[in-house]
Amino acid sequence: MIIFGVDPGTARVGWAVLSAVGKKMTAKSYGCIETKKTDSPQDRLLIIYNKLLPLLKKHKPKYLSLEELFFATNAKTVMSVGQARGVVILAAAFHKIPVISYSPPSVKLTICGNGRADKKDVQRMVTKLLKLKEIPKPDDTADALAIALTHAYRLNGHTRG
Question: Where in the sequence numbering do the catalytic residues fall?
């Protein structure tokens, strides 16, 4: 089964394609959609949408796993990430792909066994679990892989940890 993981944002959207066959997980493809600060907010969202659509069409995931909006101290950041999440959900709806959301602590608990693990711990575990040669860059890409892995583990009825 193919799971498409997304770490949303307006500056960078990490994405990952994970193949899950039983307990075997393989990273098929991953990357990051980047937008420019100089682009208008609506143009940034359109860029994200237009780059996601062909990725979803190409990989035909059964599920799209998305990071939930989590507590943030900056209201402006919350709004822009929320808008980016909406664009991701719209792209999934266009392709009729079910969307499942996970909170950052839930992802950390599943991947590292600790809901308060730091980013470096998550990156190292993603690299280890998927047998990658190096930590995926930027961080948003590693986060997207972790989000996809979380859904794969949950589908198998267990958490790591």
Answer: 7, 67, 140
